[in-house]
Every structure is written in C-alpha cells, then in structure tokens.
Design brief:
MutS, DNA mismatch repair protein, domain I, Dna Ligase, domain 1, DNA replication, DNA_polymerase-Y, alpha+beta, five-stranded mixed sheet, DNA polymerase, domain 1, four-stranded antiparallel sheet, globular
C-alpha cells in the first residue's frame, strides 16, 4: 500500500500597498490621505495607497489619469533604497521560521513551512509573522495559507488589507471553481479574454474543459490551467531562484498592421517590465523584443548596452527601434513582448535612473 501524499504547508505573504504605506508611515501628514508613489507630469503610478484605490487609482496607471480620477491625489517621490531596507527587515523575519523563502519582489514572498512547524500550525506561524512585521516595521501584511503556491497566493488577496485567509486541502478545488477566471494567478487579461471567448468565465467553467481542449488552445499552459482548476499545483518553493530576465507580452484580438498602433501597444509592456524591475531591485543591460506574426511565425531581436538601461523611457525607445525593421509583414502582428535581461542588483549608480521613470514633480 502506497503512503498518503504529503500535504505541504505554504504561506504567501504580501505587504499592503507597500511603497505607499512606507511613505505614510514616515510622513504623518500623508496618513489617511490618497497617496501615489510616482510623478505627476509623465510616467506611471508605482503604488497607490488604499485611500487612492477607492477612486480607482492603481499601479501602472498613467499619472495624469490617476490625477483625473482623484483630484486630491498626493504624489510622492519614490525612495527605493528605503523600500529595499524595509524589505530586508521583513525577509529577516521570514528567515526565523524557515529557510525555504522564495521572494517574488520587495513586498511579497512564498514560505514553505512544511518541515519547520515545531508543533505549531502554519496558520499560527503566519499570524506570528504578520504581528512581527507590524512590530518591527510599523506596516501591515496580508497572508494566505494553503497546501500549494497557487492557492496560497489566491488566499492572501482574500482579506486585504491586514488579513489572513486559509484554504485547507479539502476546500481547494471548490474554492478555485467559485472564482472568476480573471482572479487566477497566471491568467493575464489577454488569456482571460480568450478563455471568455470559449465560454470559460469561472473556475468551474475551466474545470469542465478537457486537457485536450485546453492544450489545443493554450499550448503547454493548458496543462497548468487544467491542474489549477482542480486546486493542483506541484511547484516547489525555490529559495535559490535566480531571476534571469523580466518580461511581459500581449496577444492582440486583431492583428496589428499600423506601426503607430504597435508603438502604442509597447508602452504598457514597458511600464509593466520596468515596474517589476524596480520592485525586484534589478537593473538590466539587454532589451529583447518578441514579435509573433499572424501566421504564428515568431522572431526576437535584442540590443545590449555596456551599462544598465537608464529607465523605462530608454527601454521603450530601444524596443521601438528593434520593431521598426521587422514590423512590415503581410500577415500582421498578433503578439508583442519586451524582456529585460542581463540582470544585476540595482546599485547606487542605477538608482537615480530608476527614479527618472516617474518624472518627479
């Protein structure tokens, strides 16, 4: 008789509006006010306080649009060295409970507590971690507890801000099936729209699809979607994960045939890539453009610099330069992607360039 499958204890900890909360902590005049970390003249919002989110202000939103949504919005210059320092304090707390820590960015991480419970439950440890974060940093964190990474991340979003939510093994599949497909980690807006075109609106709809149906329409990702619809995720928490690149891509409903429209589509991709680079404390020297044509041919073009890319605007300019000579094609363009690679820790020399992304007011 085979032994029962071992149940893991995974916690996902996510700081609440991290950048904005640090600014409100350090400046009492900002507490209770709608705050956006970023610039007002150009650029995008890096983070928004919960007071700002009530008006619809979100990260990656153009700053001018954010100001229209919330006329009283207060813009604050980013202080990435401070955010990194606070992040290090938080990770030191994690390390008191488990060596299996997989940071996703400065403000969130997975923890595998399976072999480090010491007679306690994972839920109890998650409560302790949240309490210690508040005590040490003065900030709040939300946490999700479950038996795999996918569900733990979903759980951490359930009671934000300053919340804790647990999804036990017996409730995993049912919980997933109750959610709209857009809530699934790993299902972006373009994929969600494609799923909706096939009548897949919820986890329950996804669970009704066969593996053959999903792989035929979503390729290798089909297996992942089939599994998560059933609450299955076998990915391990990888503490030594070295991120080699940061990328974003988008598939369009209609093939692009106008170069100006393609240039416009590169902008939100650059915003997303640079936002993740900043949050991860990374700088990169190589920009790669991915192009997939209407007939599914795919090419990449790259440019490497002798020093880190100076900011989001330079990265976007390089991507547009790479696109110009390869755009014209009778089949049109169905997908564009931008990747930043040759990564290194962003040090003092790169930090001022990162601040330039937000065009400080």
């Amino acid at each position: 008789m085979s032994e029962p499958e071992r149940i893991r204890r995974i916690v996902h900890v996510d700081m609440d509006a991290f950048f904005a909360s640090v600014e409100q902590r350090d400046n009492p005049d900002l507490r209770g006010q709608p705050v956006a970390v970023g610039g007002i003249q150009r650029g995008v919002v890096a983070a928004a306080s919960y007071e700002a989110r009530r008006f619809g202000v979100r990260s990656a939103m153009p700053s001018m649009r954010a100001k229209r949504l919330c006329p009283d919005l207060i813009f604050v210059k980013p202080r990435f060295e401070v955010y990194k320092s606070v992040s290090q304090q938080i990770r030191a707390i994690f390390a008191d409970y488990t060596p299996l820590i997989e940071p996703l960015s400065l403000d969130e991480a997975y923890l595998d507590l399976t072999d480090y419970l010491d007679g306690r439950t994972a839920t109890r440890i998650a409560q302790e971690i949240r309490a210690r974060i508040r005590e040490v940093t003065g900030l709040t964190a939300s946490a999700g507890v479950s038996y795999n990474k996918f569900l733990a991340k979903l759980a951490s979003d359930q009671r934000k801000p300053d919340g804790l939510f647990v999804i036990p093994p017996e409730a995993g599949a049912e919980f997933v099936q109750s959610l709209p497909i857009g809530r699934f980690h790993g299902v972006g807006p373009a994929t969600a729209a494609r799923m909706e075109s096939h009548g897949i609106l919820t986890g329950a709809d996804l669970a009704r699809q066969s593996l053959e149906f999903l792989t035929a329409r979503f390729g290798k990702s089909g297996t992942y979607y089939w599994n998560i619809a059933r609450g299955i995720d076998t990915r391990e928490v990888k503490p030594d994960r070295i991120r080699k690149s940061i990328g974003a891509e988008n598939t369009f409903f209609g093939d692009l045939r106008d170069i100006s429209a393609a240039h416009a589509e590169l902008t939100p991709l650059a915003d997303k890539v640079w936002r993740h680079a900043v949050a991860s404390g990374k700088a990169g020297r190589t920009v790669t453009l991915k192009v997939k044509y209407g007939d599914f041919r795919q090419i990449t073009r790259a440019k490497s610099l002798p020093r880190p890319v100076a900011g989001r605007d330079e990265m976007l300019e390089i991507a547009r330069e790479l696109l110009e000579p390869v755009f014209a094609d009778p089949h049109g363009v169905r997908l564009l992607g931008i990747t930043l690679s040759a990564l290194e820790a962003a040090g003092a020399e790169t930090a001022p360039r990162q601040l330039g992304l937000f065009d400080q007011a």
